[in-house]
Write a structure and sequence with these properties.
Elements: H1 7-41, H2 52-67, E1 74-80, H3 83-90, H4 92-109, E2 115-120, E3 123-128, H5 133-146, E4 151-152, E5 157-158, E6 162-168, H6 175-191, E7 197-199, H7 202-223, E8 227-236, E9 242-253, E10 257-259, H8 261-271, H9 274-294, E11 304-309, H10 311-314, H11 319-329, E12 337-342, H12 343-346, H13 351-363, E13 366-372, H14 380-384, E14 389-392, H15 394-398, H16 406-419, E15 423-426, H17 432-440, E16 445-446, E17 455-456, H18 457-466
Parallel strand pairs: 6-7, 9-11, 11-12, 12-13, 13-14, 14-15, 15-16
Antiparallel strand pairs: 1-3, 1-6, 2-3, 4-5, 8-9, 8-16, 8-17, 9-10
This protein binds ligand C2E and magnesium ion (2 copies).
């Protein structure tokens, strides 16, 4: 018997084989098309790196592996320093070239299975599967080094710094959590002078969340009159006469009680809320001065109100108008208001500062440098700026008595102030001896717990009525 199959069966088999091959080819094509489609969906068109979807994809896989016992993945988030400025100066095409070069350099600094993606204009993320923090730090530093050399743009070359945040994933993390925390670390790097790697720190997150909460509450506090002003007397040292007072803001928090300015002014300054807060203080202080002037036997006619002004106020175009309107509304002369500016508020000395200061000076309000000597202490600007007073930082008075030469030192400061044609107020006087010492070197005015602590309105009004002159 022949072993060959009957003809009919052979042809049926080969037809089937053909069909199988055809189906397989179709399947492969479909697969490829799907793969291409997916690859495109996961690719950043400009740089050829992965995009956000690719990052999500890689993260999900890495977290699955972690659940099965692998090490958790680490995320490096990178943001180019000064990219917008570069784009504005060098143009779009050059900016694209920079992004492409940066992408290549990052790619070449990491391993094949690390997932490099571009998330936004100049934001990159690298997911390192199963990577401990120490190794991720080393990779991050390698990327920083790779980006160090200038990038050639044909007719010129640029240096592009990058700030890097690192966060290792926790089992409960979603990609959003991981990105947010890496972003926080990256921002820290920017704050600390850029071009470095920062590892996520839970304390920073806590501080940030607290700040966010405070900002929200503070905004409501300004609008719902939870802020209050306390007043502290300023005394003419030679006569003991109360010249005026400084308004110091406090926050009457419904849960936490009285909060001191040191705890919320910096937050207000960092978040721009300071402008609104400053307007509130200005209106409240000027209104209070009007009430005292109107009440018999409280403030004399040249009693002045001092308020603290922040750097942001000097940068605001409306500030001068706000001040002049507030005074005009209450029928008060500009001289009755003194604005206290810290050295750090004026030290920028940019166009806007100079414009605002000159306008305030023209308006006729008093301008005083606060906490003089606490910071930069450049004597030069005492003469250059249109200020008329200086409030000397309390550390100088508090060192009185500790060192016998301190009084000579204070006398020298006093002489500088006077030779600049300014009036000096001495802050932080806590004892009769300190007041007497300052009087002995002809200091003009003083402020401190010895003369009176900051008091709420009603108590300060009582004090004014009782003590129009401080017993010397
Ligand atoms: P500052 O303007 O230098 O105000 C003086 C601070 O020293 C006040 O603290 C005051 O209570 C305190 N002080 C007064 N006399 C003495 C003393 O004899 N000994 C000691 N150890 N301290 C004394 P406060 O009220 O906590 O204010 C702190 C800072 O907060 C102020 O320093 C000022 O820079 C800022 N601040 C207060 N109110 C405002 C405001 O309305 N706006 C702005 N932008 N800042 C404000
Ligand atoms: Mg002050
Ligand atoms: Mg001060």
């Amino acid at each position: 018997m022949s072993a060959t199959k009957p003809r009919r069966l052979v042809s049926a088999d080969s037809r089937l084989e053909n069909l199988e091959r055809h189906v397989q080819a179709l399947m492969a094509e479909l697969h490829h098309a799907r793969y291409e489609q997916r690859r495109e969906a996961l690719t950043d068109a400009l740089t050829g790196l992965g995009n956000r979807l690719a990052l999500v994809d890689a993260f999900v896989k890495a977290q699955q592996a972690t659940a099965e016992g692998a090490l958790p993945p680490a995320l490096l988030l990178l943001d180019l320093d000064g990219f917008r400025a570069l784009k504005n100066s060098a143009g779009h095409a050059a900016a694209d070239q920079v992004l492409i070069t940066v992408a290549m350099r990052i790619r070449s600094a990491v391993r094949e299975n690390d997932v490099v993606t571009r998330l936004g204009a100049d934001e990159f993320a690298v997911l390192l599967p199963a990577t401990p923090q120490s190794r991720a730090t080393a990779v991050g530093n390698r990327i920083l080094a790779a980006l160090e050399p200038n990038i050639d743009l044909g007719n010129n070359s640029v240096r592009c710094g990058v700030s890097v945040g690192l966060r290792t994933a926790e089992p409960h993390h979603t990609i959003e959590d991981l990105l947010q925390e890496a972003d926080l670390a990256m921002e820290e790097s920017k704050n600390e002078g850029r071009n470095k790697l920062k590892v996520f720190d839970p304390a920073t997150l806590h501080a940030r969340l607290l700040q966010r909460q405070i900002v929200g509450e503070l905004r409501d506090a300004i609008r719902s009159d939870q802020l209050v002003l306390y007043y502290q007397p300023i005394v003419e040292l030679a006569t003991g006469r109360i010249e005026g007072c400084e308004a110091l803001v406090r926050w009457k928090h419904p849960v936490h009680g009285l909060i001191m300015p040191d705890q919320f002014i910096p937050v207000a300054e960092a978040t721009g809320l300071i402008a609104e807060l400053g307007r509130w203080v200005l209106r409240a202080a000027v209104g209070q001065l009007r009430s005292w002037r109107d009440a018999p036997a409280t403030a004399h006619q040249d009693f002045s109100m001092r308020i603290n002004v922040s750097a942001a106020d000097l940068q605001s175009l409306e500030f001068v108008d706000d001040v002049s309107e507030a005074l005009a509304e209450k029928g008060l002369a500009p001289e009755s208001l003194v604005l206290e500016l810290t050295e750090s508020a004026i030290i920028h000395n940019n166009e806007l500062d100079r414009y605002t200061l000159a306008s305030l000076h023209r308006l006729g309000v008093g301008l005083e440098i606060d906490d003089f000597g606490a910071g930069y202490s450049s004597m030069g600007y005492l003469r250059k700026l249109p200020v008329d007073r200086v409030k000397v930082d309390r550390q100088f008075v508090q060192d009185l008595g500790k060192d016998p030469s301190q009084l000579d030192f204070l006398a020298a400061i006093q002489q500088v102030i006077r030779s600049c044609g300014l009036e000096g107020t001495w802050e932080g006087i806590e004892t009769a001896e300190q007041a007497a010492a300052l009087r002995s070197i002809d200091c003009a005015s003083g402020q401190g717990y010895y003369f009176g602590r900051p008091l709420p309105e009603a108590e300060f009004t009582d004090q004014l009525a009782r003590l129009r002159t401080w017993p010397a």
